[in-house]
Amino acid sequence: MKNRALTVVASFIMLLALHGLALTQEAKLVDAAKKEGGKVVIYGSLENDTMDLIAAALKKKTGLETEYWRAAANKVTDRVANEFRTGRPSYDVVLTTRATMQLIQKDGFLAKYDSPSARAFPKEVIDPNLGPSYRNTIIGIVFNAGIIKPADAPKSLEDLVKPQYKGKVVVPDASQHTTTAQWLASLHKVMGSKEKADKFIRDLAATKPLLVESLTPAGERITTGETPIGIAFLKNVVFYGKKGVPLDYVRLGKFMGDGQSVALGAKAPHPNAGKAFIDFFLGEEGLRLMAGIGEFVTRKGIYPPLPDADKIEMVEMDELDQKGFAEKMTEYKKIFLQQ
Fold first, then answer.
1. In angstroms, rounded to a whole number, what is the distance separating the alpha carbons of residues 135 and 257?
2. Which CATH number do you get for residue 15?
3. Higher pLDDT residue, 63 or 322?
């Protein structure tokens, strides 16, 4: 018992020492960031409202300013690639879907940074080059419960193509949005077979859904009631619920999703500010802010306030390379736009 007690005390002292060391490292990093100009420039696909929360908390804690440019995942990585190749990268940090970030990481546009905050993540979500996938973006059928009552909502993906929903459905345009293309290409993993998934995709296209740029505007259209049902992020239920919009989602059991990563730019103009941002973003305070508005963060013990969130089984989408994305986006353009 005495040896066990000594071990516990020693472990506690070590934790205190590590905490103190982390605080010292954080202070040095923030001081260095302020000497660079006190600003971090971020390119990403995280919603503006979410980034506003993170930026405000970061400024309150460190005094650092955040400049954020947002677009769909493929447009983020396109801008990163274009700037890097012209020799004038303006970004310090990139955060978007892991699959698209892996592509630009292979091209040398991102730097490896082992953030101390990454130690709190399970090993299975950590990429050796990009670090942890800090959240999972889970995609499903979301509907405006003020217009479509839960009893009248679809009960499965296949139900979405029924006649009663025609003209009421919004879908992100897979011919221009990589994540949606990846989602459609991976549906066979939750629908049982490629034949079933292909039939569903063609049946969905035949209903002539409203096509929008990406998943975020799809969620916005559902909230307005213009198209009260569609393919969107499940987090919209919590995010817009806090604004008084009665959204709900179809309990499918298994949902397709993808990990999201955050990384330092290979030639970041403000590298210390970039590192300070990543440390805070992946830390407990940053993750709790994200979970509070519906994000499925991957740090253990932090969950979104979404009904039945504990029953959701996320299935990882298939990974596609640049050729695979291009082929699928061309295929879906023919199916959804050239009938």
1. 10
2. 3.40.190.10
3. 63
CA dihedral 273, 54, 119, 299 (to 10 degrees): -160
Domain residues for the domain of 235 are 136-257+310-337
Quote the strand ranges of the chain, DSSP E. Answer: 39-44, 65-70, 93-97, 110-111, 126-127, 131-132, 135-144, 169-172, 210-212, 229-233, 247-249, 254-265, 296-297, 313-316
Q: Which residue, chain included where needed, has tokens 């986006």? A: 329
Are residues 176 and 213 in contact, defined by beta-carbon separation less than 8 angstroms? yes
Residue holding tokens 């409202």?
49
- Give the number of residues written for the chain: 339
Domain match, 247 and 144 both:
yes
Contact 39, 270 (CB under 8 A): yes
- Both 18 and 38 in one domain: the answer is yes
Tell me the per-residue pLDDT of 286-325, one tens digit each, with 9 for 90 and over: 999 999 988 889 987 888 999 888 888 889 899 888 899 9
Q: 3-class DSSP state for residue 256?
A: strand
- Is residue 237 located within the same domain as residue 110? no
As a 3-state breakdown, the chain gives helix, strand, coil percent values, each rounded to 5, of: 50, 20, 30
User: What distance in Å separates the CA atoms of residue 170 and residue 299, rounded to the nearest whole number?
Assistant: 32
- Looking at the DSSP bridge assignments, the partners of residue 249 are 142
The rounded radius of gyration (Å) of the Cα atoms in the chain is: 21
Rounded mean pLDDT of 184-190? 96
Residues 122 and 179 grouped into a single domain: no
User: Is residue 169 within a helix (H) or strand (E), and if so which, with residue range?
Assistant: strand 169-172
Q: Which two tokens stand for residue 281?
A: 């973003």
